[in-house]
Design goal:
The chain is built from four helices and no strands. The longest helix is centred in the middle third of the chain and has 43 residues. The chain is elongated and about 75 Å long. The two termini are 35 Å apart.
Length: 146
């Protein structure tokens, strides 16, 4: 019981130690694409986990691991808001790119089969770009890929 209490306290301290980084990332993620987003998320998670590991490793193994997993899940949930904000920006960028591509199709082609072929190719390319860019943001171990 004492181990559970202390591990939970240390977990809360670990989260508090990275809270400002999480909040800063969220604010920046809502404004623009963060080039090193995954690196920042990984650093936040590792910093909190290292704090927890170094301060709680003497407690019972099962309790330690249970609270360690809780810490990781809480961090992933907190960082998900930033991840979601980045996805929204990527989606908008891809949509804008698609819109420009559609507008650049030759007007005479818009009334025949070339239009359908070109738009389908563009759509596939834009969806692929969205998927590939999004994959680069996914934090290993999180459920963000689902």
């Amino acid at each position: 019981m004492v181990a559970n209490f202390r591990c939970t306290e240390i977990k809360n301290e670990a989260i508090e130690s990275v809270n400002s980084l999480i909040n800063e990332l969220k604010v920046n993620a809502e404004k623009a694409i963060i080039v090193n987003f995954l690196e920042k998320c990984t650093t936040i998670v590792k910093t909190a986990q290292e704090y927890f590991d170094s301060n709680a490793n003497q407690y019972q193994g099962a309790v330690f691991m249970k609270v360690h997993d809780e810490l990781q899940e809480q961090l992933y949930q907190s960082l998900y808001l930033s991840f979601s904000a980045q996805l929204k920006i990527i989606k908008q960028q891809v949509f804008d790119k698609f819109d420009i591509s559609i507008r650049n199709i030759n007007k005479k082609d818009s009334v025949n089969d070339i239009f359908i072929t070109q738009t389908n190719q563009m759509l596939k390319a834009m969806l692929h770009e969205f998927e590939e860019t999004s994959k680069k943001l996914i934090l290993e171990g999180s459920a963000w890929a689902n």
